[in-house]
Amino acid sequence: MEKKYTNKTKEFTTRYAASKSIAAFAQALRQPDRQPRVDGVLLETYLILYDLLNDDDEEIRDIAASTASHILSYSSVSPDRAVTLSPLNASELFATFLADNYVDSRALSTRAVRYILGQEPRISNANSERSLPTVSTTVAELRKERTVLFEEEKQNLFIEEVREVDVWSVVLMRLNKDAFAEGLLSETFTWVSEGLACFSEILGRQDGEDGMIGWIAKAEAYTLGVQLISLAGVLVSREFKALNMLGGRRAVLREQLQTLLECGKKALLHDDLVSRIQSALEAS
């Protein structure tokens, strides 16, 4: 549970303390008119700053955006000028900055996959870490009839999950082969392959063709589809630097994407998901 400290005028959370601490440290991270430091040991600090840019507290986001703007000025993403960024723009540019400067980092590739899957604990929700369920398990829950009148509110409403998938999929595509461990690729392949097979199997059945009024239309199902298709798209892309580490598994995923495309069209799968599958196949 996150600690809170209070005085007569303000409540101080550990997140607020983190944002102020990194802000105070920012001058050491980038000296005036120079590029920022990108020592390996600073990656974790930068990832914490990324999380603060996506915090559900507006004040914390603003503090983090000011810090990120200072670091990103005269960096690889803005080599010739200083920048002043909103939290939303800063978070996207900061992910690009990390991909540019930590291209061989296995820690970054692992974190990127976990961000895509929504599995990385956020500083705004330290209790969010959990094991990754299979897609079939998640889909089984989504297909159950809901009788609860009010859904439990997620803690961080600022994080837009689909945007996170898109941002960190791009990061994975920019990283070098050395950034990927065989174990990470194998685990990712297994989750994606099982998920593609699950989606295709259900969409290929008559009771799976529920279009605009069934489980396919749920926001959670759409997000799961984006996560699944985006990771598959990375793994089959001709531009993926670790492509040869997958061997014949790439062909398996490509065939599964083609099957999902055919089943999805028949089952009225969301147009955006169909478009994402087509884009993944075109890039493979």
Note the main attributes of this structure.
284 residues; mainly alpha; 2 domains; two-stranded antiparallel ribbon; 2 strands; 2% strand; globular; tRNA_methyltransferase_THADA
Summarize the structure in words:
The protein is 56% helix and 2% strand. By secondary structure, it is mainly α. The chain folds into 2 domains: 11-102, no CATH class; 160-283. A two-stranded antiparallel ribbon has the order 1-2. Mean pLDDT is 86; it is low at 5-10.
Short description:
Helix content is 56%, strand content 2%. It has helices at residues 14-29, 43-53, 58-72, 87-101, 106-116, 135-142, 161-174, 182-203, 219-236, 249-266, 271-282, and strands at residues 4-6, 11-13.
Q: Order of strands across the biggest sheet? A: 1-2
Mean pLDDT: 86
CA radius of gyration is 20 Å
SS elements, strand count = 2
Order of helices and strands: EEHHHHHHHHHHH
Distance between the termini: 44 Å
Beta-strand portion reads under 5%
Main beta sheet strand tally, sense and closure: 2 strands, antiparallel
Mass-distribution shape:
globular
SS element count, helices: 11
The percent of residues in helical segments reads: 55-70%
* Number of discrete domains: 2
Q: What structural class should be given to the helix and strand makeup?
A: mainly alpha
Stretches with pLDDT under 50, minimum 5 residues? 5-10
